[in-house]
Amino acid sequence: MRFKYQKTHHCKAAIVLCMDFRFWEPVIEYLKTNNINDFDIIAVPGAAKEILDPKSNLVEKSLQVSSRLHCIEQIIIINHADCGAYGGRKKFDSIEQEKEFQLKQIKEAMNKIKQQIEVKKIKGLYVDLDKAGEKINFAQVN
Ligand SMILES: [Zn+2]
After folding, report:
1. Full-prediction pTM beyond 0.70?
2. Which residue range is the domain that position 26 belongs to?
3. Which of 5, 28, 38, 116 lies 20 to 30 A from 90 at CA?
4. Number of structural domains found in the chain
5. 79-98 pLDDT tens trace
């Protein structure tokens, strides 16, 4: 296999996403479709949940490495529906309530990271599931 990054050690973005095996593949497909091709991956349970945990600075430390070594311009924080770190879908009264809560978590995590890491752009993404759990939708948070 050919190594395509022989001449560069920089990338455009770092993504912070949940480690859940069900979601990383569609997320990466979505990012590539949106022309985000090279990125560091920080995978932690609950993504925004870990960022907002006052006892943890794991994500912050990882993003500092991305910033210092890979000169990233963009950070994308990605949460998803039915996340076990938040107690799963059953923890919420409805899909709408879950989405509203998750969008708020993402926004709060974006604001916290904004204060910690100097970067051009911070975005959020919520990976939603329909009621039957058959279809994935992406909602951007700016
Ligand atoms: Zn999760």
Report:
1. yes
2. 13-141
3. 28
4. 1
5. 999 999 999 999 999 999 99
